[in-house]
Design brief:
Elements: H1 2-10, H2 15-28, H3 32-40, H4 43-50, H5 56-70, H6 75-80, H7 83-89, H8 96-110, H9 114-122, H10 126-132, H11 138-152, H12 156-164, H13 168-174, H14 180-194, H15 198-206, H16 209-216, H17 222-235, H18 240-250, H19 252-260, H20 264-278, H21 282-290, H22 294-302, H23 308-320, H24 331-339, H25 342-352, H26 356-370, H27 374-383, H28 389-392, H29 400-414, H30 418-427, H31 436-439, H32 444-457, H33 467-481, H34 487-500, H35 507-513, H36 516-523, H37 529-542, H38 546-558, H39 560-569, H40 578-590
Helix pairs in contact: 1-2, 2-5, 4-5, 5-8, 8-11, 10-11, 11-14, 14-17, 16-17, 17-20, 18-20, 19-20, 20-23, 22-23, 23-26, 25-26, 26-29, 29-32, 32-33, 32-34, 34-37, 36-37, 37-39, 38-39, 38-40
Length: 595
């Protein structure tokens, strides 16, 4: 019963007595029962009232106690009694120990609490935090950086407000100093500010922050390297182009070192960097193989106590190395993966891992490893003695994403392979009812993916509907998807059409008849590079169809810039009919438009 008595002493007007009582409380507030007693005795409003006193010792110790209280989930109560404006008001002082304790308290109040993050912004606390980044004190620099990290975390509005107040130049300046501890906290702030915020990512990249963060990867301490890696990957953003750029900046050696690191975060970033580099790039895939990048990935697959997020990233990386533009395969990387004995490890995960997410990603990666490789297909099915049943049952999972991903894995196994289609048919009854929810989905990317996978490639596997009708429906859905105003849908559809243009005979003709060429040409003028690239790839593969060849040639002759756009945007690994290029050059020399 001591705590209520001490709280009563805080309410008396004698400053020395208040200091003694607060001093005692700050020595015991790290204990959970003490915090509960403080809250029950209405200690929070009493402590906040002392923040407006004239005594710095009271300010400092009250901030420490409120920090301890906030760590046990009383953040909203502190905010209710106007604790945040009272704390922000103390940031005007010039006493380091008070400032450190106040900022630490604000930091904890903002952890996973959007209302408190907004309160710091609304009560003009941001400008003080930014000012301390340019302080002469390394302690204040570090503490303010850590506080900014939590004030901004996962809150786009606050991230933007900090950028508007000018947080970026002083934050970048921290990395030009020599104090590693300050730079680690600065990297925390960078990670938090840049997370899912393209404008801030761009601003940091323009200030050449990457080269400073790369220096953290050379540090001896693992926590320093870890924070450097995480901050770099926050700057990589969500677009493939930016992620690829960042992975190239990090370089093969650092990426492989990350995969070999004991840190789960570094392993994750390493896996994501491999995915970004290898996506649609045979050159990078081959260089990763030649640089001994496969062995660390397979080693991680064998670790039993690996974080699920890291494991997912590594599994995806193994698959990504083996598959290229428009579902082409890379026999070189496929061979490297098999040589490292990845098959048994992946099969073990597919059979025994408790997570359906892991199982479905393993199925997809296995499909990538054997894609269009008859030798590996035979080795996979005969030597390892497994059937499609372990993938088929994932298609009945309650999670829609897992069902769709399982369908995608089956699609890759069956892609341009009649024998595998027959084996899927033999392994169990597959009906249209499994796919109907996706084909009727309001999510455009789901609908397009379902049309590609389950209708066009698996059409002969579905037993209760005529495969010609299924294929026709799938083609119509994909052509309709090209009229979407969502860039992600257009990119996906362009890539899927590119794949289908070199699959079954008749499919390219069907796309051409429905006006696909004209619509793909329309998207060549998109502001988004990913859209232009995907549609250019689709057009390139469609030129192998005589009718599509003729229509696209007419388009390019009447609008010569059309050809330049295709050539400038088509992926390096994509294919375009050499006869089309030759014919266009000849027609260009003649110089007449098409009638």
């Amino acid at each position: 019963g001591t705590i209520p008595a001490l709280i009563n002493l805080l309410k008396c007007p004698k400053i020395k007595l208040q200091c003694k009582a607060v001093g005692l409380l700050s020595n015991i507030s790290t204990h959970v029962p003490v915090v509960h007693a403080l809250v029950e005795a209405e200690g929070i409003p009493a402590l906040i009232n002392l923040l407006v006193s004239e005594e710095p010792e009271l300010h400092s110790r009250c901030a420490v106690i409120l920090y301890d209280i906030a760590q046990l989930g009383n953040k909203d109560v502190i905010a209710k009694y106007n604790g945040i404006p009272a704390l922000i008001n103390l940031l005007q002082l010039n006493i380091e120990c008070v400032l450190v304790n106040v900022m630490n308290c604000i930091r904890v109040l903002c952890i996973r609490n959007e209302d408190n993050q907004r309160a710091v912004r609304d009560h003009k606390g941001i400008k003080y935090l930014i000012t301390f980044l340019s302080s002469d004190s390394d302690v204040l620099k570090a503490v303010s950086s850590a506080t900014i990290a939590e004030v901004a975390r996962d809150n786009t509005g606050v991230q933007d407000a900090l950028a508007m107040e000018g947080v970026i130049p002083p934050l970048v300046a921290l990395f030009k100093g020599k104090q590693l501890s300050v730079q680690v906290k600065g990297a925390m702030a960078v990670e938090s500010l840049a997370s899912h915020n393209p404008a801030i990512q761009k601003a940091f990249l323009e200030k050449s922050l990457t080269k400073y963060l790369l220096k953290l990867l050379k540090a001896f301490k693992i926590d320093v390297k870890e924070q450097g890696a995480v901050a770099l990957w926050a700057l990589a953003g969500q677009t493939l182009k930016q992620q690829k750029y960042m992975a190239e900046q990090i370089g093969y050696n650092f990426i492989i070192n990350m995969l070999l690191s004991p840190s789960a975060k570094m392993q994750y970033v390493g896996g994501e960097a491999v995915i970004a580099l290898s996506k649609d790039s045979r050159m990078h895939q081959n260089q990763i193989c030649e640089g001994n990048g496969i062995a660390p990935l397979v080693r991680l697959l064998r670790i039993t106590k690996i974080a699920e997020g890291t494991l997912l990233s590594v599994i995806r990386a193994v698959g990504s190395i083996c598959i290229g533009v428009a579902h082409t395969s890379n026999p070189i990387s496929q061979h490297y993966v098999v040589e490292e004995n990845a098959f048994p490890v992946l099969i073990q995960l597919l059979r025994n891992h408790p997570s359906a997410n892991i199982k479905v990603e393993v199925a997809f990666s296995l499909a990538c490893i054997v894609l269009r490789n008859d030798l590996l297909q035979n080795e996979f099915w005969e030597i390892l003695e497994i059937s499609y049943n372990c993938i088929n049952y994932l298609m009945n999972d309650r999670n829609r994403d897992i069902c769709l991903r399982a369908g995608y894995a089956l699609t890759l196994f069956a892609f341009n392979n009649r024998f595998q289609q027959y084996l899927i048919l033999e392994s169990g009854t597959m009906t249209i009812s499994i796919f109907e929810p996706f084909l009727e989905s309001t999510i455009e990317t789901e609908k397009a993916m379902a049309a590609f996978q389950q209708i066009i490639v698996l059409a002969k596997v579905i037993i209760d509907v005529d495969h010609i009708a299924l294929s026709a429906r799938g083609v119509n859905i994909l052509v309709d998807s090209l009229y979407s105003d969502q860039a992600s849908t257009t990119v996906l559809t362009g890539n899927l059409i590119a794949s289908l243009a070199h699959s079954r005979a008749g499919i390219p003709e069907a796309f051409t008849t429905l006006g696909t060429i004209q619509r793909l040409c329309y998207h060549l003028y998109s502001e988004k590079e990913e859209v232009r690239s995907a549609c250019s790839c689709a057009l390139g593969y469609l030129t192998y169809n005589a009718n599509a060849f003729r229509i696209l040639l007419k388009e390019c002759r009447n609008k010569p810039n059309q050809f330049i756009r295709i050539r400038n945007n088509i992926s390096r690994d994509a294919s375009i009919n050499p006869a089309f290029l030759k014919e266009f050059e000849m027609q260009q020399k003649v110089g007449l438009p098409s009638l």
